[in-house]
């Protein structure tokens, strides 16, 4: 490698490192804005905007889904393992919506501290398996220990 | 090592070597596509939550992997252009861009089709989807810059800087699901852990992604080789080769 080529290589390395640092700093500064949703814990801590729309993500608490007979109104609780938040929604839920499933709801806080959602999205995790395996796991009753949705190694982070 | 590199990248050597890889990777791609499609459509189970729509994964994930892999290839080729002024590397980088853009678009489009039934939305501005969209814009910017500058060598250098700086987006795409809260789920297949999927699903996915990789090698080398031939059309070795093996002059 002659000196000219070495200088070019050094210059390129310096440029990439500098831009990398700039992007990292911007990413850290914007961390809250890049996050797609708030956790129930953040809502309990009052971190969400009072009069603007925001997203909340969590697992649907088992047994908390209450449907209104006669219309599409539904109420359920979301948890991240530490805190819970109540969500009201009217509309068609995505196919993957079920108890224990990770979901993301967009809406506003109402007077009682509940979320009135205008949109509900289902979040699935990175585990894929055939239905027979899930049945076998259910029968064995150790669904919690196996790679069940949302109960993988880091439940509090993604949901 | 560098002398070896220069000899390897001499237009004539490049032509022969590319021909070798085009032939063998071409057959490889054919076999892998056939077995991969058979596995993913007929020989892998549906998912316990998503049912049959899991099969979108066998196009979506290989396309997304390729979109990042091709970008890294393009950036490394651009580094050789900028530092060592290797012409074959410029041809490879130029050939990478439209292929990378195609796979990025494919990943975004299939992801959108998958997102609507499963998540409930065609598009969400989460970190994974947004950074992948930026990747598409990087490819398009690279192509626009290449064609905006008349002189091919100057164009390759200018676009090369863009390609190398843009490499910062690759770790952002990959780790976006860990660094931020996203709707997109985390990685199923990592180097450190056992894949969180059934073996038949895993085989389908690996076959399809190898098929995509082989296809990329064939396509990029064919395109780069053509460009080199066009560039070198007045040189001695091209004339000899065409005169010797082809009727056309």
Overall mean pLDDT of chain B stands at: 90
Distance between the termini of chain A: 51 Å
CATH class of the largest domain in chain A: Mainly Beta
Neighbour order of strands in the largest sheet of chain A? 1-3-4-6-5
| Class based on secondary structure composition and strand pairing of chain A | alpha+beta
Radius of gyration from the alpha-carbon trace of chain A, in angstroms: 22 Å
User: Residue share in helices of chain A?
Assistant: 25-40%
Number of domains of chain B: 1
Topology of chain A as a string of helices (H) and strands (E)? HHHEEEEEEHH
Number of helices of chain A: 5
Indicate how many domains the architecture of chain A comprises.
2
Integer-rounded radius of gyration of chain B: 20 Å
Class inferred from helices and paired strands of chain B:
mainly alpha
Structure summarized in a few sentences:
The complex is a heterodimer of chains A (159) and B (249). Chain A has helices at residues 3-29, 31-34, 40-44, 131-140, 155-158, and strands spanning 54-60, 66-67, 73-79, 84-90, 102-109, 115-123. Chain A is α+β, with helices and mostly antiparallel strands.
Your description of this structure?
The complex is a heterodimer of chains A (159) and B (249). Chain A has helices at 3-29, 31-34, 40-44, 131-140, 155-158, and strands spanning 54-60, 66-67, 73-79, 84-90, 102-109, 115-123. Chain A has 159 residues and is an alpha+beta fold. Chain A has a 5-stranded mixed beta barrel with strand order 1-3-4-6-5. Chain A starts with a helix and ends with a helix. Chain B is mostly helical and 249 residues long. In chain B, helix 3 (57-84) packs across helix 6 (152-166). The radius of gyration of chain B is 20 Å and the shape is globular. The two termini of chain B are 37 Å apart. Classes of the chains: A alpha+beta (159), B mainly alpha (249). At the A-B interface, helix 1, strand 6 and helix 4 of A face helix 3, helix 6 and helix 7 of B.
